Known about the structure:
disordered C terminus; eight-stranded mixed sheet
Amino acid sequence: MSGPAMSPAMTLARDRAAGATPGERFWRRSLYDYAAMTAEAPGGREGGPQEPERFRRFGALPRFPLPAPPAALAPSEQVPSAAFHSALLHYTNGVLRTEFGPTARWPYHRATPSARCFAPVDITLWTPGHDGLPAGIYAHDPAHHALVRLRSGDFDEVVGAALGAHLDGAVGVLFLSTVFWRTAFRYGDYAYRLCAQETGLVAGNALLVAEALGVRGQVHHQFLDGVLERLIGVRPPQESVALALPLYARGGSSRRRSAPVAEAELAVPAPVERPAPSPGHGLELCPDLVELDRSARLADTAAFGELPAREGAGAVPSAPPVDLAAVLRDRTSGSLVFRVAGPPVPAETVRRITDRLPYAYVSDARPHGTPSPVRAHLWTSRVDGMRAGVHELTPDGPVHLGDLPLERLGVAAPNIDYRSVPAVLFLSGPREAAQLAFGDRGFRVLHHEAGVLAQRACVLGAAEGLAARIHNGYDAAVLSRALALPEGHEPLFQIALGAPGPDERCLLPVPGQTLAGSPHPEGAHQ
């Protein structure tokens, strides 16, 4: 006979007594105590005094305005160049639309989905320089479409050492960092999961945009955290370097270093003076988030791990949609209540998304040339020419696993009208394998990997005229059984797909210039 249900605090005390690591505890809480975890959040009110700014202020640091981004993306004639950086940064993580209307709540919409448009992911660039821009480390200022110089100099050797790789021939490196309080003021400790998901979405978008510009990105989840923090001026625990993306011209590639490198062996310049995110407080209310981020740090490349090669999964060419810029501008997560309009979606439309979902990109989380560890399933309800129920997406096409009614799926997002939705995509990953390979860093590594594919699904859906709503509202245990996931495999993303319904909001394109109401640098008006 089972005893009374344990509260989240009792569960946490039990896990700590059993010797569970911060990562193992966070896996359990964020997937299986989702409702309780978000209920314990600090409760910051949007528009209230705790809400942080969406953009960082850079003060008097040297600024290099970028030219207006192009209307279409094509292989760049010169890499790197101001035009290349303008297109890459704007379409990767820039503000593509502003929102107006009677139900408008979140004015700035980025190129990727973001929970309540909080946009916790910042981008910093290392570049070997070009005419008018000295080699160095630059922060991207999306509010003013500009680069802000943090350091001058050539840092490819120290960056490569921190990544455990040789970066010969790299045309630049993107560093993705997360400002936790932008999301945590509202979601508390649970923000760590949201930030990890969104880092993966931005990384996936960077790969697509880079490909359209004629360069290839490689995903590095593992690096010496302290080295990169000092180099680009990220200040833990308020923010954390999450992922690095070296960029190469066709045929270029990172090479792993044969000898391990310890952080203590590297001569790293003094920490750069980078303005802190505002406000720089509040994380004392999120002890689990801070503990997990600290536990996930690496100080020696000898500690880098790798997932076992996944068998039986293919990959498709990585080419993005033909008119990627237009697709990103049109991409939408739907109205506040995701309610689909119109007739059922043809099976051919769905197959053009699912057949191109496997993605041949390079990641340091797995052996070179092996596919993503992320599995994909599709639940269909209103798709003409495809049986209703659950399908596993395989290299040979969708495999129908059974007719499963909505009530047995375990989904519970109050702002999604599931009975109108033609299809829901689920992405899952090997939690146990990731924890073994990467320790407590495995939580974010696996969410990054899933996020890369999630953004690809959102973009492919937008190319077919479909909105894509990402939502974590599901019962992980029920959904795992419904998808017949193997032991130790967890559902990480839920993405509802369908033609967008009526929306009272007015979403206007932003051409990459200064945003109305955004913070201006002191002494300058752009």
